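Can't paste images in this forum, so I'm doing it all in text. The chain is below; anyone willing to post the predicted structure tokens underneath?
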Amino acid sequence: MSFFIGLWKNNIVKLVIIAAGVLLFFRYALPLLWPFFVAFFFVLIFRPFIKRVHNKIKISEGILAGVLLGLIALILLFGGWFLLCRIMDMIGEFRQNSDYVMDCAKTALNTCCNFIGERMRLNPKMLEEGVLEGTENLIAGIRDNFAPKALDASYSYASVIFDAVFSIVVTIIAIILLTKDYDDIKKKLAENTAFIRIRRLCRKILTLLKIYIKAQAIIVLCVSAVSMAGLFVCGVNRWYIWGFLTGFLDMLPFVGSGIVLLPIAIFLFLQGKVWQGIGCLLIYGICAFLRQILEPKLIGDKMNVYPIIVLLSVFFGLQFFHIGGIVLGPVSLFLIREIYEELRE
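Text version of the structure:
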């Protein structure tokens, strides 16, 4: 026993154990209990607002929580519907202009093959036919493999949708019940030492998480605004949607705004719109520069952590938790640090 106590006193071993425990918790326990964690943090965030409204109009706090949830759901549904409609319009426009796009692509391919053929003394026609044949085979392979797999996976998709709907219903019920009984639960746990330490830890994590989300929101808004303005000047259709996607995808490490702006620039070059394409490349450079300027000020200075460490946490979060790692990666980092500091005290 003394060996394990001595091992626990080693700061490196302690940090490794805490990190392993946090990652295992988020990897295996959180997927099972996430509706209750969402309910807990929802109540923790919106509790002061619900309390103020309750004191003014004397309506049950559970009912107020339900109304607030309904308003948030309506906003999300309206936003999702608007975005879906815009995407469908874009798909329709692309189909209408598909012949023109293909002509531009064939012209660009012909130019490239002629250039390569002249420099390498090859037959440009054979090069072009080889590229077209390879492209057709690739498309045929994707079509033949994707359709059967999509049909086979339809049952698992239905199961995932059912689980998601059930979990959302459980989350809503948990929020209403927790809001209603929050004061009573808090009184019963107020004198428990472990609960006091957990509550203090949760408040620290919530404060850091608010700073991180606020910083990312500011960066996303700035990048989106610059992208929208630039794409509007370049005459790109649906500039507001592309600008928003640019800002949102800029959060992803090693992806960034280039995942949207570079294909748009290439498409403009294929259309012969050279200056507009150069404008998109310039927008990409401004967006990358903007993140490099804002991130250290909004994250590093306020959270007392280097931006490169936050970037690493997002990257490893994506490896462990997939798309949820954008948030869970930094949360894991903050939680490991705060637990370690709490245990040192």
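The two ends are 22 Å apart (CA to CA). Residues 269 and 277 are 6 Å apart (CA to CA).
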